[in-house]
């Protein structure tokens, strides 16, 4: 499959959109790139004290990563900087080369979403949002931005959503997926209500540190363990949204699970439904079976692509969850990023291509796309 064969449906009044990438990671060359968008107070604070997260490490993520900057070898800009810090290289290496018509920016570093100092974290989140606009969206019309907010400060998060809703270019709201408490808890509902009010989906990419290991059994020995366990944390997050009642309270809220895999989606629904009859007295706020909320409110990105030993099993997985629930994502420029031409190991029909590569994203993001 080449990009020329991808769907190219016409949208009235807009350029045709045939290929949407729902996960591209831009980054700064250094923290100082954000200083023009922050009050001087926070420049001085960061220079003097640095950032503090809910983990033992200061100069690293919770688990040291096995590859520099998590990225592919050819993604380092020739003029210096980290992978994802050069718009020109991203345009040449990814947007142009792969025929990307729309790309969702999802900043991961630097992080304000799980900073211990709440005011500092909000200042960083706001700076990241303004940096996206000025350094990326205003320079490249194919890109769209993500509003990053701090879950542990709902008042500040709502204010930032309100501010960014007036700025053209943003398409979703993001926060850490590993917060202090499961994201379905009521302490976070005001954020979800603000997102839904403005028609923003939640774009939830696995990220953040809450002081606990990513696995249920403690800190792993290997990066291999930590990396694959990320998907398990997304299972818990989805269950929390459903069982705590978020999706009953906000039936129109759209939630995109980014970089969490998708083979687990149908079995999760089966398991929750199987237990629902026994436990429904504990959750009377649920008016539907859990799988119905799962099917109505959630979408999932293709990266990391599931690769069963028998490729035809991939088709069965997608049949179970629904072809309209899957959005293409590359995860550029990370080492395990996917090329849209080779991501699927099965032959897709033209209708299936249209849904995954463009139409499903249009259904989620609407006119903001």
How would you portray this structure in words?
The chain is α/β, with parallel strands linked by helices and 369 residues long. It has one domain (8-368): Metal-dependent hydrolases (TIM Barrel). Helix content is 36%, strand content 9%. The protein contains eleven helices and eight strands. The protein has a four-stranded parallel β-sheet with strand order 1-2-3-4. It has a four-stranded parallel β-sheet with strand order 5-6-7-8. Helix 4 links the parallel strand 3 (143-148) and strand 4 (170-174). Mean pLDDT is 91; it is low at 1-14.
Describe how the helices and strands are arranged.
Blueprint: E1 20-24, H1 40-49, H2 87-96, E2 102-105, H3 118-137, E3 143-148, H4 154-164, E4 170-174, H5 189-197, E5 202-205, H6 223-243, H7 246-249, E6 255-258, H8 265-279, H9 290-297, E7 298-301, H10 312-321, E8 326-327, H11 350-365
Parallel strand pairs: 1-2, 2-3, 3-4, 5-6, 6-7, 7-8
Helix pairs in contact: 4-5, 8-9
Summary of the model, kept short:
This protein has 369 residues and is of the alpha/beta class.
> Can you tell me the CATH topology?
TIM Barrel
* Beta content: 5-15%
CATH H-tier superfamily:
Metal-dependent hydrolases
Distance between the termini: 24 Å
User: What is the structural class?
Assistant: alpha/beta
Architecture per CATH nomenclature, i.e. the level-2 architecture: Alpha-Beta Barrel
Helix % is: 25-40%
CATH class: Alpha Beta
| Rg, nearest Å | 20 Å
Kindly report the average pLDDT value.
Answer: 91
- The residue ranges in which pLDDT falls below 50 over 5 or more consecutive positions are 1-14
What is the succession of H and E elements?
A: EHHEHEHEHEHHEHHEHEH
Q: List how many beta strands DSSP finds.
A: 8
| Structural domains: how many | 1
Q: Supply the number of helical segments.
A: 11
Q: Please identify the oligomeric state.
A: single chain
Major sheet attributes: 4 strands, parallel
Q: What's the overall geometry?
A: globular
The side-by-side strand order for the widest beta sheet comes to 1-2-3-4
